[in-house]
């Protein structure tokens, strides 16, 4: 069985039969999560009196920090006006304004926005829209998706099917959508062969993609799905130059859509509002979530290129998909307030500037850590991959849970980082992620990096 890892820091206060239990089903039945009594800025205040620096933004979510009064007021105002409408019959000014605000000027040809409740829902909607696009164009034979190994796209059955996070798929073998295949990720640290340049690596990966389209039958492929910067599964992997642009050309050659999943890496997280802006590529559909609402409400989105919308206009004139809570007014109000703050305060630019600083700090603080194989990322989205041997890139025994132990050691010192396992191939490898708010200060970054260094050195003393 593939190793399992939790998104939450383990609490060593294991529940016993003698302890009272509440009725909330937590992610772990063995290790209850810590109780957060309040949160402000980058800090989480726990019920045991400790204050934790939220250096990962929960899961790269809290882009403006916690407790912002402008967002709180916007939520309260909307709740007084209209807390819910059903979008089959109604819309609201705040939902319309949010879509217009984000897609002002139809950036990169993205014409329409659909707001849903989570990143998984957004990916599910993108998959269905991509299929409907081809159906409307009288190509019903297109039923296949091509994605990448070491990808994560969501927890619903469809989004999990196109993902390659093996640990999360273990109990659901046989449930998945069957018309999916996966190709090699643009993960140079692990997948380049000896002596291979970035250019040759890119060329090889692009040839593999085209070969996979031809194997399946390009007339059967709906879309190619990818994260512009790979997130939690492989720790902030940035594609080599020209890779995504090359993917776009191959997709165009065969009439295949390009879906870019920016649930984790988008909305400014990598230093531009859309992560794909740095790749010289224009997608057909983009998914967004986490940073969209900044954690103040459950909201996600898909942004749709005009040519995809045109297929619906010229066909059924309807999107054959919907959710009860899509474009929820309170969620839209929260997201609109967050995004207005981001734009007004120049926080995307600040994210890039602080990200440059974070890269330098990480390089300095972790330079003497013998377990740090690679530090990689963009903006304020950085991953640290751990190895037992830097020369051979040998991983730690998965049973050790090295990344999780680093996370626990950092947490004991008052800093929360995001752990991951199965980094290399779903079975082997460890990493942690850093994704602090765009409002993080230089002083806070210094504390985060120093604590991470000490946590790594502590675990190296035990396991190396």
UniProtKB/TrEMBL annotation:
Checking CDD domains in the record gives: OAT_like
Any one Pfam family here would be Aminotran_3
Keyword presence, Zinc-finger: no
Signal peptide annotation: none
| Keywords annotated in UniProt | Pyridoxal phosphate
Decide whether keyword Lipid biosynthesis is in the record.
no
- PROSITE patterns membership: AA_TRANSFER_CLASS_3
Note down the stretches annotated as region Disordered.
Answer: 1-21
Q: Which cofactors are required for activity?
A: pyridoxal 5'-phosphate
| Ranges of biased composition (kind: Polar residues) | 8-21
Q: Give me the Gene Ontology terms describing cellular component.
A: cytosol
- Single GO MF descriptor: pyridoxal phosphate binding
InterPro entries per the UniProt record, alphabetical? Aminotrans_3, Aminotrans_3_PPA_site, PyrdxlP-dep_Trfase, PyrdxlP-dep_Trfase_major, PyrdxlP-dep_Trfase_small
Domain of life, per UniProt, equals: Eukaryota
Which PANTHER family would you find in this protein's record? AMINOTRANSFERASE (PTHR43094), AMINOTRANSFERASE CLASS-III (PTHR43094:SF1)
Family in the record: Belongs to the class-III pyridoxal-phosphate-dependent aminotransferase family.
Q: What is this protein called in UniProt? A: Aminotransferase
Q: Tell me which species this is from.
A: Conoideocrella luteorostrata
